[in-house]
Design brief:
mainly beta; 112 residues
Length: 112
């Protein structure tokens, strides 16, 4: 009887599609698309992307006068990239949310 209960519990967990780890490859950034294997590519609506994997840059544009030279100005129009974000070809670690309808993009894979 105990074995029957254990087997039923294991089957119930399997049927509910618990969290699973998968590796995917970014095939498009805008809109985001990630390929899970050669057969399936999922669109952005299937993913939860954490802030740490999005592009973040700071705009440092400003103009200032150089002291001692009333008519001399220097301008800076650079942006500094703090995080590059995802790029086409990046391998990513995906966690399938229970139920199998969504994935959390956990991080980039740097070796493997």
């Amino acid at each position: 009887m105990l074995d029957i209960i254990k087997k039923a519990a294991i089957e119930a967990v399997g049927a509910s599609k618990p969290v699973a780890v998968q590796i995917g490859t970014v095939v498009s950034i805008s809109p985001l698309e990630i390929s899970l294997d050669q057969r399936i590519t999922l669109p952005e609506a299937f993913f939860y992307v954490p802030e740490s994997l999005t592009r973040y840059e700071i705009d440092l544009s400003h103009v200032h006068k150089i002291s001692g030279s009333p008519d001399t100005e220097k301008s800076l129009t650079d942006k500094i990239v703090i995080r590059k974000g995802l790029a086409v070809g990046d391998a990513v670690i995906l966690l399938r949310v229970q139920g199998g309808q969504k994935f959390v993009v956990l991080d980039k894979v740097v070796s493997g």
